[in-house]
Amino acid sequence: MLYYLFDWLNQSFDFPGAGVFRYISFRAAMSVITSLIITVLFGKRLIRLLQKKQVGETIRDLGLQGQNEKQGTPTMGGLIILSAIVIPTLLFAKLSNVYIILMLITTVWLGAIGFIDDYIKVFKKDKKGLHGKFKVMGQVGLGLIVGLTLYFSDAVVVREKISTDNKQMLSLTSDPGKLDDGCADLGFPEYSKAETKSLITTIPFVKNNEFDYNDILGVFGETARQYGWILFVLIVIFIITAVSNGANVTDGIDGLAAGTSAIIGVVLGILAYVSGNTIFADYLNIMYIPDTGELVIFIGAFVGACIGFLWYNAFPAQVFMGDTGSLALGGIIATFAIAIRKEMLIPIVCGIFLVENLSVVLQVAVFKYRKRKYGIDYARANRLFLMSPLHHHYQKKGFHESKIVTRFWIVGLLLGIVAIATLKLR
Question: What count of other Cβ atoms lies within 10 Å of the Cβ of residue 400?
Answer without folding.
Answer: 14
